[in-house]
Write a structure and sequence with these properties.
The chain is α/β, with parallel strands linked by helices and 280 residues long. The protein contains 11 helices and 12 strands. The strands form 2 sheets. The protein has a 6-stranded mixed sheet, sandwiched between helices. Helix 2 crosses helix 10, helix 6 packs across helix 7 and helix 6 crosses helix 10. The protein is globular and about 60 Å long.
């Protein structure tokens, strides 16, 4: 066997900034678990040079890449083929390079759904779901949430028109017209079974101005952000009786889904998630 045959397949994550990314650690663990020869690195792309950076990586023999902020829209534009969920999201976080073809996928929503259902043990079918925010993070999860047949998904956003545009975009995917609705942060009424913070407010230690009445003892409140400390949103939700969860599980599950897109194998996530929680 020559050296070329045993060289590990090359993968990376593109972002700016990127030094904080846990993706190399996660994918190294997945490669070890599945016995696949893979090398995975962080790559800092210039803010105005994502496409060139990605095409250069592919020309060097790169098989695939994860894409994080602020390049998910650039990755969507670069892809030559989009999966239905990437098309619906209008954003790409996973690229697979295959000759002239660049497949663009979005695994964020699948990662969120897997974390809620498998790791948190909460069913989505028949439930009331409140999604806070209508930006890129929210766009990526609407279709995967709807595919789980919730009773309702209410998208609350500071700019109501943006949330309404998102509802209009997914009109064809609805089981009934009222399954997906939009409004301002103060408009949701009654308690919700699942409340998802898809805004970036937690980064600034801020909180979407939602009424406390949306939370109850049966509510799962999930913030897409993660870190050593609970976010302001998680603290607020917990004070009003909700079970709270950060975005670390979503991060690991979307990575597992990306791994599956690349390799056709879905790695086990429980042990790694526990290990990462212990290291925060």
């Amino acid at each position: 066997m020559n050296k070329q045959n045993i060289k590990p397949d090359q993968y990376c994550v593109f972002g700016n900034p990127i030094a904080h990314s846990k993706s190399p650690l996660i994918h190294a663990a997945f490669a070890l678990q599945t016995g696949l020869a893979m090398a995975y690195e962080r790559r800092l792309a210039p803010l105005d040079g994502f496409a060139l950076a990605a095409l250069t990586f592919a020309a060097e023999g790169g098989k695939g890449a994860n894409v994080t902020l602020p390049f998910k829209l650039d990755a969507c534009a670069l892809a030559t083929v989009l999966t239905p969920r990437a098309q619906a999201a209008g954003a790409v976080n996973t690229l697979r390079f295959d000759g002239e073809t660049i497949l663009g996928d979005n695994t964020d929503g699948a990662g969120l759904v897997a974390d809620i259902m498998r790791n948190a043990g909460v069913a989505i079918a028949g439930k009331r779901v409140l999604l806070l925010g209508a930006g890129g993070a929210a766009r990526g999860v609407v279709l995967p949430l709807l595919e789980q047949a919730p009773q309702e998904v209410f998208i609350a956003n500071r700019n109501v028109a943006t949330a309404e545009a998102l509802v209009a975009q997914f009109a064809n995917a609805l089981a009934h017209p009222d399954q997906l609705r939009a409004g301002g942060y103060t408009q949701p009424e009654g308690q919700f079974d699942i409340v998802i913070n898809a805004t970036s407010a937690s980064l600034a230690g801020d909180l979407p101005p939602v009424p406390a009445s949306i939370f109850g003892s049966h509510t799962l409140a999930l913030d897409m952000m993660y870190g050593a400390q609970p976010t302001v949103f998680m603290d607020f939700a917990a004070q009003h009786g909700a079970q709270v969860r950060d975005g670390l599980g979503m991060l690991v599950e979307q990575a597992a889904e990306a791994f599956y897109v690349w390799r056709g194998v879905r790695p086990q996530t429980q042990d790694l998630l526990a290990q990462l929680r212990g290291s925060l």
